């Protein structure tokens, strides 16, 4: 078993005591240190006090709802968020992804699946933080991969963790069309999942990097396939993308 300080600290937020207890036991067996909260106000206090490495967040909470908790977390921190949603909450799930959640699990769920999702999200988050110094550029769009900073025409862009990872992947692979399934596997680490996740993140990226999101120049839709990144400026050599 991993040591808890190596595995990470997880904040589990759910108003169902039984769900919290099951998740605590499964996560602790995998080496994580676990904090629990049963409502949104307690979750925000615990988040500020304990600085978790990841938050497992139920959308349906008493008092301050899960979507508002996610929004407040995203105002100050890029910490990964895995949402718990009921089967019929598709609109809220999409909104949660728009607010910056990194992944979601639909209730009822397997605790083992959730632990696997937590591990996958944490690995990708940590890999991004420890990435070797790298910069990517396409015209006025510049990305410092190691520092996780992105600017457009000199102005800082506010990107969620997943939006940043997706944009980096696209800039590393200009001119190639990717299906939503391929993007889920490459950026999210999912071998299966809801393709609307990719659609939502692409729309958000277009809103942030395209002059006219309704007529995108960089992120093109390839009908029947998925998406392709078209450089604003033709690469002038290997250093144009590194």
From TrEMBL:
Residues 133-231 form the OmpR/PhoB-type domain. The modification 4-aspartylphosphate is found at residue 58. Transmembrane segments: none annotated. PROSITE patterns: OMPR_PHOB, RESPONSE_REGULATORY. Keywords: DNA-binding, Phosphoprotein, Transcription, Transcription regulation. SUPFAM superfamilies: C-terminal effector domain of the bipartite response regulators, CheY-like. Residues 133-231 bind DNA. Residues 9-122 form the Response regulatory domain. The keyword Phosphoprotein applies. It holds the Pfam family Trans_reg_C. PANTHER family: DNA-BINDING DUAL TRANSCRIPTIONAL REGULATOR OMPR, REGULATOR OF RPOS. This is Response regulator transcription factor. It comes from Saccharopolyspora oryzae. The lineage of its organism: Bacteria, Bacillati, Actinomycetota, Actinomycetes, Pseudonocardiales.
């Amino acid at each position: 078993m991993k040591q808890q300080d190596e595995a990470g600290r997880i904040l589990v937020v759910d108003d169902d005591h039984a769900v919290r207890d099951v998740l605590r036991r499964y996560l602790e067996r995998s080496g994580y240190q676990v904090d629990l909260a049963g409502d949104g106000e307690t979750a925000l206090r615990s988040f500020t006090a304990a600085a978790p490495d990841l938050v497992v967040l139920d959308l349906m909470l008493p008092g301050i709802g899960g979507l508002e908790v996610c929004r407040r977390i995203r105002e100050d921190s890029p910490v990964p968020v895995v949402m718990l949603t009921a089967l019929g909450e598709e609109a809220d799930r999409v909104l949660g992804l728009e607010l910056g959640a990194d992944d979601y699990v639909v209730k009822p769920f397997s605790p083992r699946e959730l632990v696997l999702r937590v591990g996958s999200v944490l690995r990708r988050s940590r890999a991004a933080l420890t990435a070797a110094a790298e910069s990517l550029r396409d015209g006025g769009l510049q990305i410092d991969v190691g520092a996780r900073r992105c600017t457009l025409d000199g102005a800082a862009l506010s990107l969620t963790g997943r939006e940043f990872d997706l944009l980096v992947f696209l800039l590393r692979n200009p001119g190639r069309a990717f299906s939503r399934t391929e993007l889920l596997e490459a950026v999210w680490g999912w071998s299966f999942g809801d393709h609307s996740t990719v659609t939502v993140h692409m729309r958000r990226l277009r809103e942030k990097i395209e002059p006219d999101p309704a007529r995108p120049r960089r992120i093109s839709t390839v009908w029947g396939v998925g998406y392709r990144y078209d450089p604003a400026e033709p690469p002038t050599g290997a250093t144009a993308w590194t």
